[in-house]
Design a protein that fits this description.
The complex is a heterodimer of chains A (800) and B (176). The N and C termini of chain A lie far apart (80 Å). In chain A, a hairpin with an 8-residue loop joins strand 10 and strand 11. Helix content of chain A is 28%, strand content 18%. Chain A has 800 residues and is an alpha/beta fold. In chain A, the strands form eight sheets. A seven-stranded mixed β-sheet of chain A has the order 14-13-24-23-22-15-16. A six-stranded mixed barrel of chain A has the order 27-31-28-30-29-32. In chain B, strands 2-1-3-4 form a four-stranded mixed β-sheet, covered by helices on one side. Chain B is built from seven helices and four strands. Chain B is an alpha+beta fold and 176 residues long. Chain B folds into two domains: 68 residues, Arc Repressor Mutant, subunit A (Orthogonal Bundle); 93 residues, Glutaredoxin. The chains are: A alpha/beta (800), B alpha+beta (176). At the A-B interface, strand 7 of A face helix 4 of B. The structure holds iron/sulfur cluster and FE2/S2 (inorganic) cluster (FES) (2 copies).
Chain lengths: 800, 176
């Protein structure tokens, strides 16, 4: 039966008639019909290599067996995947593959989940015709994340193709030739890609395995629980693997709409932080400067006392945007229930000028999967590759399809695709650059410039490059302007927002936020902002924002999973506020030295993977997950702690039985919320002074692995990103510091410099980075050394 | 980084530029074989530093250079191959049938080194040639510094090796 419109062809596999799109590969068609063909080199997200020959099948009229992964289907094709000819071919291939593969599965970390092991059970023979020595490949160390055992490699080249086609940087390759060909990096180097760990998932054998979890337990001893990654705002699907209820490792799960089948290294290896040494196991109260472990009811009663004996306006409530939706909602509900209005999660933001004009939550404005169909994209203050690796992956796909990617940033960035324009200037200049593009967009669209924007445009001369950016957006059928994490931390965020909105409106582009954390969107919906209650309702009393709560000390602070010296814009200021406060109540899985010094009550909460909950990602998708691992000691899921607290505080409506009840209540309230980002262009803007000439200006966007308490405790990730702990300057500035010989001879050992911000001086390693503009220093936030410094953006002094 | 100084010599960059001209702008990889040849000509082997420099010069991933360099046996990756003269005796079927084993033995004895080694004075590198050099009709044969010599006998080998050696030594003498 052939279709008249030729959209489909009919083929027969193992006597079963199947309709298929002409030209699609036999292996795909078979997969869709649940007919399994063995394979090693084929991967549906990678190009066809057809080098392993494991997928040989018997095709009628073909003189010899054909590889199903490289054979397009045709009308009337008749295929047998298990005929004698097919099976002989598959068995022979298996024998060849095993010639050089060690038969040491019992000591291989992949044992039990190895594609080669599985297929050799089915197609392998008990003996081999090959009696010579097996070859041995000497391993190279490729970093902290991926362990290699290249003697086990079957040279399917999946990892090589992954580097070129997905990661956009070739790190693994095939060197040598013939029987001496080896897969590897050739020289000893650690993998640099931010998504390198995916080669562990795709390697069909035990050649590439996860270093941190190596030899911890066997595949068949582990339990698998689907979950959601907790760092960036993508909300990638992951699978958590636990052994005796302890998290052992994390692998990618498939979710075509969100992360396809890849995850970032951050999402894969951060779980190590769950078992950090400073986990708290028991509630604790500080009596006269000495910590005492107490039982839950004592701790909660004391908390209630502390909260009720001061006026509600003297209480400040701060929460991590990584907390679950349920936790954030119950926190908000209980605190607003006792009249507290100072509540916020935006600890790295300092410019709140236009918060009232924002929409229900900072949204991407489209689906993540739609990014790859865009024709042009303007990134404003975004290091998307490190901030949201899986969004970068979609932008990369768009770029490979010909989309123009343009950006306005305070430093040049290393993209893994062709970028049309990178407009780089110091953070203050950045606003002017964006103003030029905005002005050009008004000229092009012939829209009237609103009065509010006029003074931003005075003295602004449109140039060719910036005009071209506006033109590209304008010409494109589908275009978007995305504001990233750097914008959000920027002291002129409201101005960047208004200008971006203007550009988006004039060029008919979508305005979107690449928001910071796994639950940034959820925090808004749960009402953890001073001006809004849950579900976008205006708050009865508008409270203080995070920055105000920390610049003027309050009497009582309630912190949910926060380490203020690392999680807030200005660690010095935050610590001073805590020092002045009467009581600091911390609901937290961890208690580091700084928290022990500053807090008065610690309520131990469950860490990542130990609690059920929900995250709302940047596109507005609600994703719930179950707990996978057992909590530590007496620690309890934070939503349960808050439920009890709400009851003890006599706030109504706190009789939830499960986290699901909490979620369902909020879900119902949020049912009419859309993902429009309604920023008013007429807002009030923050005016910034010019970058000072006598000292340097700090660019303090969050370090790659420093964004939250979990990832900061992930040992392997920390080791693999030493540069986040350094200060980076361009050669010119380094020469001005009198360190010219460092510029001339890069190979010298690390130089340390003294960095002064506020009253504090810290020694830090110095790195040359000519991507940084003059008069600026890149010094990441969230790191150990920056936890002693001041605001992420602002003046600093550096001396040799 | 935007502009990096290259450690490639003038001869090497000139040679690469000359080849680059022959290929479309976005196909710099096409000049890779020639670029590595130019480095071989200067250094007699490919150091990692030079391969990295070639990668940067042609804007290729480093691994792409390592792959090509390690694929072809005409490139040497070991520093010990960096002798003044390279001897490659074909030991493939035709040559073997015509006595290449004897030639190899003779050279090893004469120079006091094994195949794959370099003489102490840095004069000769005796390469392990793995492929048929496509001169079977003149077997046994060898390649001495890219020049083919066929129908070898021990005497002929002596003559040839002494000639290159003395030519070099003479030149060295003149220079000093
Ligand atoms: S290391 Fe694994 S993925 Fe890479 S080529 Fe070898 S078997 Fe394939
Ligand atoms: S899967 Fe088809 S050849 Fe490897
Ligand atoms: S076998 Fe020696 S040249 Fe062919």
């Amino acid at each position: 039966m052939s279709n008249s419109d030729n959209k489909f062809v009919t083929i027969t596999i193992n006597d079963k008639e199947i309709e298929a799109v002409p030209g699609s590969m036999l292996i795909d068609v078979a997969d869709k019909s649940d007919i399994h063909i063995p394979r090693f080199c084929y991967h549906k997200k990678l190009s066809v290599a057809a080098n392993c020959r494991m997928c040989l099948v018997d095709v009628e009229k073909a003189p010899k067996p054909l590889p199903a992964c490289a054979t397009p289907v045709n009308e009337g094709m008749v295929v047998w995947t298990r005929s004698e000819r097919a099976l002989t071919a598959q068995k022979d291939t298996m024998e060849f593959l095993l010639i050089n593969h060690p038969l040491d599965c019992p000591i291989c970390d992949q044992g039990g989940e190895c594609e080669l092991q599985d297929l050799s059970m089915e197609f392998g023979s008990g003996s081999s015709n090959f009696h010579e020595m097996k070859r041995v490949v000497v391993d190279k160390d490729i970093g902290e994340l991926v362990a290699t055992e290249m003697t086990r490699c079957i040279q399917c080249t999946r990892c090589v193709r992954f580097g070129e086609e997905i990661a956009g940087m070739r790190e693994m390759g095939a060197t040598g030739r013939g029987d001496r060909m080896e897969i590897g990096t050739f020289v000893e180097k650690s993998l640099d890609s931010e998504i390198s760990g995916n080669i562990i998932d795709i390697c069909p054998v035990g050649a590439l395995t996860a270093k941190p979890s190596r030899y911890h337990s066997r595949a068949w001893e582990m339990m698998q629980t689907p979950s959601i990654a907790s760092h960036d705002s993508v909300g990638s699907s992951v699978k958590l693997h636990t052994f005796k209820q302890k998290l052992v490792r994390v692998i990618a799960a498939e979710n075509e709409d969100i992360n396809e089948c890849w995850i970032s290294d951050r999402d894969r290896f951060s779980y190590q932080g769950v078992y950090a040494e400073d986990r708290v196991e028991k509630p604790m109260i500080k009596y006269n400067g000495i910590w005492k472990e107490v039982d839950w009811s004592t701790a909660l009663d004391r908390t209630v006392e502390n909260l009720t004996e001061v006026a509600a306006k003297d209480i400040a409530v701060l929460a991590s945007p990584r907390a679950t939706l349920e936790e954030l909602y119950l926190l908000q509900k209980s605190m607003r229930g006792i009249g507290v209005s100072n509540i916020d999660h935006r600890l790295r933001q300092i410019d709140f000028n236009d918060q009232e004009s924002a929409g229900a939550f900072p949204s991407l404005g489209m689906k993540i999967a739609e990014i790859e169909n865009l024709d042009s994209i303007l990134l404003v203050g975004s290091n998307v590759r490190k901030e949201q690796p899986m969004i970068n992956h979609r932008i990369r796909k768009a770029a490979l399809n010909g989309a123009k990617v343009m950006c306005v940033n305070p430093m040049e960035l290393d993209f893994n695709y062709e970028v049309d324009t990178q407009r780089v200037s110091n953070p203050v200049e950045m606003i002017n650059t964006l103003a030029i593009i905005a002005k050009a967009s008004y000229t092009l669209s012939k829209n009237k410039i609103p009065a509010g924007l006029k003074d931003l445009f005075t003295g602004v001369r449109v140039n060719k490059i910036d005009k071209a950016i506006a033109e590209n957006l304008m010409k494109s059928k589908k275009s978007a302007v995305f504001l990233g994490n750097i914008s959000k931390q920027h002291p002129g965020y409201s101005t960047l927002r208004a200008l971006s909105k203007a550009i988006a409106a004039n060029t008919k582009s979508t305005l979107g936020y690449l928001s910071e954390s796994a639950n940034s969107a959820g925090a808004w919906l749960a009402g953890v902002v001073p001006h809004k209650k849950e579900a976008d309702q205006v708050a009865d009393v508008i409270g203080k924002n995070a920055s105000e709560m920390l610049s003027r000390a309050k009497k009582v602070y309630v912190l949910l999973d926060l380490e203020l010296e690392r999680d807030s814009d200005n660690p010095q200021q935050a610590k001073a506020a805590m020092n002045q406060a009467d009581t600091v109540i911390a609901i937290t899985p961890y208690a580091n030295k700084s928290l022990l010094a500053l807090a008065d009550i610690i309520l131990p909460s469950a860490a990542y993977a130990e609690t059920s909950g929900t995250y709302v990602n940047t596109e507005g998708t609600w994703q719930s997950f179950k707990a996978a691992a057992k909590g530590s000691g007496e620690a309890r899921p934070a939503w349960k702690i808050l439920r009890v607290l709400g009851n003890k505080l006599d706030v109504k409506g706190f009789d939830y039985v499960s986290s699901k009840d909490v979620r369902n209540e909020l879900r119902e309230l949020c049912k009419d919320i859309n993902n429009e980002n309604s920023v008013s262009v007429e807002g009030i803007y923050t005016k910034l002074d010019d970058v000072p000439t006598q000292c340097l200006y700090r660019i303090g966007n969050v370090g790659e692995y420093s964004g939250d308490s979990l990832v900061r405790r992930a040992a392997a990730l920390q080791k693999s990103s030493p540069e986040q702990n350094a200060v980076q300057l361009n050669s010119k500035e380094i020469a001005l510091l009198g360190l010219k010989d460092l510029v001339d001879d890069n190979s010298k050992e690390v130089t340390t410099v003294e960095v002064k911000q506020g009253e504090v001086v810290v020694s830090m390693p110095l790195i040359i980075n000519d991507y940084i503009p003059d008069k600026c220093a890149l010094l990441a936030s969230g790191t150990q050394s920056s936890s002693l410094l001041g605001s992420a953006f602002g003046e600093i002094e550096i001396t040799a | 980084m935007a502009t990096t100084k290259t450690i490639l010599s003038k001869h090497e960059t000139d040679e690469i530029d000359r080849w680059l001209e022959r290929f479309p702008k976005d196909k710099a990889q096409s000049a890779l074989l020639a670029a590595l040849r130019a480095v071989m000509h200067e250094d007699h082997y490919l150091s990692t530093a030079k391969m990295d420099a070639v990668a940067d010069y042609l804007n290729l991933p480093k691994i792409a250079v390592y792959e090509v360099a390690s694929f072809y046996s005409m490139y040497e990756l070991d520093e010990k191959a960096a002798a003044k003269n390279t001897i490659a005796v074909c030991t493939n079927v035709s040559c073997m049938l015509n006595g290449s084993d004897g030639i190899v033995e003779h050279i090893e004895e004469k120079l006091g080194i094994k195949m794959g080694e370099t003489t102490a004075d840095g004069e000769f590198f005796f390469k392990v040639e793995e492929e048929c050099l496509a001169a079977c009709c003149g077997a046994p044969m060898m390649q001495l510094n890219h020049v083919y010599h066929e129908n070898l006998t021990n005497e002929k080998v002596d003559e040839l090796l002494d000639a290159v050696r003395s030519k070099r030594s003479l030149k060295d003498k003149e220079a000093s």
